[in-house]
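Lecture 7 notes: from sequence to structure.

We start with a single chain of 214 residues. Read the sequence below before looking at the structure.
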Amino acid sequence: MTENTTPVSINDLKDKKTAHGALVSCSLSLSESGMMMNSNSNYYVGVTAGMEGQMITVRQKKPFESETATCYKATTDILGQVSELAQRENMSAWGELRYVQEFVVFDHSSSAGMTLYYDDTPVGGQINTSVNIDLKAVRQQGAGDVEDEYRRILDEGIASAEFIGRGQNDNPLVMAAGAPLPDEAPALGCWKCPCCGYALNEGRFCRECGSKRP
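Now the structure, written as tokens:
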């Protein structure tokens, strides 16, 4: 008997409902890699709810350049808009979508993804439940308009946000590997070091003085 390997579709998932709490963070991550050293590029946007409001982190690296990190404070309810979009499209079920590679490419690779983070403690879950969505699969399923709307929400949120600061990483070996900066988990918003005042931190320790995140 032949096993059915047909990938799950958005239509298959439209009635699959999962209880979630409030949306507390979301992100967009795009990357491309080539054969030449340091020729990779990436673009990351993360929005997270904090005590001071919704904070935005933008990390970008262009080919043969260093990565920059820019932080903003949102002046609009980005997470509220994303939450409405996710509920309307039932996107919390889209983590099951898988991109089907149509042909093999050896000298280039790319990825596009978004992640929704929920505080599921009110429904008996974890405080930071993540739903990872492959945007290449979303487009393959014909739902590119939903991705476009998600990007528009983020772009408009950044355009109207309050600028906090910008930093740069000059280590080409780290960037060539496509690795995160030392001691960093995926960024969920910038924080200011209470010891030295550096305001572009994203990981567990201050990049300037090494103090642990409070």
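The beta strands are 22-33, 41-50, 53-61, 67-73, 109-119, 129-134, 162-169. Keep this in mind for problem set 3.
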